[in-house]
Amino acid sequence: MKKFKIVIIGGGFAGLQAARSLRGLGNAEITLVDKTGIATMVPALPDALSGRLPMDKLFRPLHELAGGNLRVIVDTVESVSLEHRSVAGVAGTYDDDGLIIAGGSVPLAVPDSFEGPVHMVDSLEGARALRAEIETRVGPDPLHLVVAGAGYTGLELAAAARRGVPDPGALCITVVDTAEDILPMLTDRQRAAVRSYLEARSITLLTSTLVRKTQESVVELSDGTTIGNALFVWSAGMRAAPIEFDEQVERTPDGRILTTDTLAVPGHPEVFVAGDQAALTRDGRVLRRAVNFAFYSGRRAGRNLAAELRGRKPKPFHPVDLGWVLPLIETSAGRVFGGMRVGGRFGLRLHYLMCGFRHFGGRRSGAYYRAALNLRRTPAPLAGSPLPGEREGSDP
Ligand SMILES: Cc1cc2nc3c(=O)[nH]c(=O)nc-3n(C[C@H](O)[C@H](O)[C@H](O)COP(=O)(O)OP(=O)(O)OC[C@H]3O[C@@H](n4cnc5c(N)ncnc54)[C@H](O)[C@@H]3O)c2cc1C
Fold first, then answer.
1. Could you identify the atom of ligand 1 that is nearest to the CA of residue 276?
2. Ordered structural domains, the chain, with CATH
């Protein structure tokens, strides 16, 4: 019997779920190509920055989580040939009879006018580098952390940095955004609560303002303010992970791939896209990037690929919006399950549980749940949290 070659690009929430849903396909050789080889708990990166969650609890090797007949290859995919049915990485080429593209997203490109060092917290390494820089530079002269982008990630990062260094005299934090107000999905009351949360932590919020340029440790804003001894964080938005194709595929302006209702690339019924890399839609509108949509689209993409290879009809993907929680280190604001408002520690715990369940599952992930759900845990200094590939206790 012919063995189908299946390639999955990316082992995040979507790719891993696709791999799990393909496990039952007996006559298949499944290869998961991921640039890191680990599953990272991306939504908890701000907690890694704050020091509340040890970094080593926030990743797991992909081969442990996916199990079954899955081969994990660490490689960065650069391009996909839809015509020749192959995937080209930096280290090798992988032929396929069926493909799932789930490479997630990357930060928006940094404008050329930013000449100084730019921090981004889109990985554990990024969280650690920023934390290390804060720890090194906090001293008698106030250090200014300037975050560009007051979306949920920018606000979470600001809150996380404050938790790591509670003294507002030592670390001044400013979040800057070009929009007139923050977080349009919040109610007025929730928005006011978030604003007073930030105020209580001496986090300055500047809306309708642009970061004009950065140079060494100076940040210049559109209102003419110049901030010295600054540390600059870029959190102004995301775009789809850049992967080239040998033919035109339609994309949204932020690079997400438009698919059919079954998540297939139009004209290529054995190629599916899931998670942040797909322009997932509901009622004609592209949905926000979220764990929930990544998880379920990954599962649907996997099941549809299995159906296609067995000669059955794939099913449409109907995204269900289970709501959202904005985690703010010690508290939260959100709306789940069709309108129920959640907040405080309950919302936080729900957030960690749902993200944990959707990525690490339940098996052998106790260390993550114990650390994440213990909200009284105090921030620890940076040391003692080796990242993948590092020996315990070795220098970062
Ligand atoms: C700081 C932060 C906080 C967030 N908080 C929340 C939250 O609270 N709630 C929520 O719902 N969502 C949150 N999100 C969004 C959420 O994390 C994403 O929507 C989700 O991770 C998308 O899943 P994915 O599988 O598409 O991508 P990812 O989980 O990002 O996985 C992509 C995978 O692809 C791999 N990869 C990328 N490019 C390549 C390549 N070229 N070749 C091979 N492998 C590649 C990566 O290594 C990674 O393993 C947050 C995002 C960030 C950055």
1. 26
2. 4-35+75-107+238-309 (3.50.50.60), 124-234 (3.50.50.60), 324-373 (no CATH)
Q: For atom 19 of ligand 1, which residue has the closest CA?
A: 290
* Residues 6+ away with beta carbon under 8 Å from 26: none
Q: In the structure, what pLDDT confidence band is assigned to residue 115 with cuts at 50, 70 and 90?
A: very high
For residue 375, what pLDDT is reported? 85
Tell me, in angstroms, the distance from the centre of ligand 1 to residue 293's CA: 11
Among 42-46, 73-77, 192-196, whose mean pLDDT is lowest? 192-196
Of the candidates 239, 235, 238, 58, the residue with the CA atom closest to the CA atom of residue 161: 235
pLDDT in tens, 308-355: 999 999 999 999 999 889 998 888 888 898 888 888 899 999 999 999
Closest CA to 358 of 39, 26, 5: 39
Chain segment 364-380, per-residue pLDDT in tens: 889 999 999 988 877 66
Give the position, in ligand 1's atom list, of the atom nearest the Cα of 105.
30
Cβ burial, residue 223 (10 Å; 0-12/13-18/19+): exposed
Where on the phi/psi map is residue 290: left (φ > 0), alpha (ψ -120 to 50), or beta?
beta
Hunting for tokens 């919040």 — which residue is that?
186
* Closest CA to ligand 1's atom 50: 43
Atom of ligand 1 nearest to the CA of 13: 25
| CA atoms within 13 Å, Cβ hemisphere of 325 | 27
Task: Return the C-alpha torsion angle 19, 23, 26, 27, nearest 10.
Answer: 0
Residue nearest to atom 31 of ligand 1 (CA): 12
- pLDDT of residue 179 exceeding 90, the answer is yes
* CA 275 – CA 281 distance, rounded (Å): 11
Ligand 1: residues with CB < 6 A are 9-15, 33-36, 42-43, 45-46, 76-77, 102-104, 121-122, 153, 241, 243, 275-276, 289-292, 294, 327, 351
| Residue 224, pLDDT above cutoff 90 | yes
Atom of ligand 1 nearest to the CA of 12: 31
